[in-house]
Amino acid sequence: MVVFTGRTVEEAISKGLDELGLTRLKAHIRVISREKKGFLGFGKRPAQVDIESLELEKTARTSSVTRHKVTSITERLNRDMMQQNESVTIVGTSNEPASAKSEVATKEELEPKVKEEVTASIQPLEEEPAPSAGDSFEAFVATAFDNNKDEAQTIDITEAATQVKNYVERIIYEMDLEASIETTTKRRQINLQIETPEPGRIIGYHGKVLKSLQLLAQNYLYDHYSKAFSVSVNVHDYVEHRTETLIDFSQKIASRVLASGQDFRMDPMSNSERKIVHKAISHIDGVDSYSEGSDPNRYVVVTVKNW
């Protein structure tokens, strides 16, 4: 099965036919899923179609018919031999040599016929090449079980970075924005730096749109590659500016908690932002912090440290 995607079903079909070099009359086309527009550019899914050559399907059917024909001929010849054997009558000990000769002669007459018909039917079938004596066990395993190649491809961070970048670009395109994305990688971390003349539309109120964009990119990475990878999406210097703001805010909250002696519960934050707050609070004497709740409503609580 060869799957092709596109913005619409027609685009996916055209792309598949061009890539396979087929026309509609020589292709079997099956629509797997139609496109989804989503909401505000989120949740959009491309159309998927499965395209196969009709000639390949015809070849597969011919091979199946040939196998069925071989089986039918073999069964029919076996029945003929059984009927012929039953027709041989053993009269007594005196006639035993003659009947035995008759039975042997019958078998000798049928066996060439069986060989000819079965051989003629089997010739169109292709046999799998047997491993040569010189092939090692490791070579056999590498040939027969090549799943390791697919796994090696899925953990290629360069390919993963390119694909997640293309995914984010499609989302931004649906938002009707002009933007360029620069990709950098460090070990298992993928960084997407977005440059656009309208950063506010990508950042959103209190960074909500940017957080949603990063969540979509992270989920795409998990679904198509590895959960060992992580992705960070930044617009201009928003992440750095947001980090400074969180550190200043954490220091002010810590002073308020020390003065009042009462705990302070912050607004819900992402995992990365909570880490920034916890690290900032850990450098201030007399206060401590911990997280409560479940994502996406998990928040940080700043409290007086118990000595």
From TrEMBL:
Domain of life: Bacteria
Stretches the record annotates as Disordered: 94-115
Known partners and oligomeric status: Forms a complex with KhpA.
Family: Belongs to the KhpB RNA-binding protein family.
Species of the source: Streptococcus hyointestinalis
Gene Ontology molecular function terms on file: RNA binding
Compositionally biased tracts (Basic and acidic residues): 104-115
Function: A probable RNA chaperone. Forms a complex with KhpA which binds to cellular RNA and controls its expression. Plays a role in peptidoglycan (PG) homeostasis and cell length regulation.
Keyword Translocase in record: no
Chief localization: cytoplasm
R3H domain ranges (all copies): 240-306
Record's protein name: RNA-binding protein KhpB
Subcellular locations according to the entry: Cytoplasm
Keyword Secreted listed: no
HAMAP family named in the record: KhpB (MF_00867)
Gene symbol of the encoding locus: jag
Gene Ontology process terms (BP): cell wall organization; peptidoglycan biosynthetic process; regulation of cell shape
Entries under SUPFAM superfamilies matching the protein: R3H domain
UniProt note: domains: Has an N-terminal Jag-N domain and 2 RNA-binding domains (KH and R3H).
Keywords: Cell shape, Cell wall biogenesis/degradation, Chaperone, Cytoplasm, RNA-binding
GO cellular component, one term: cytoplasm
Taxonomic lineage of the native organism: Bacteria, Bacillati, Bacillota, Bacilli, Lactobacillales
A Pfam family matched in the record: R3H
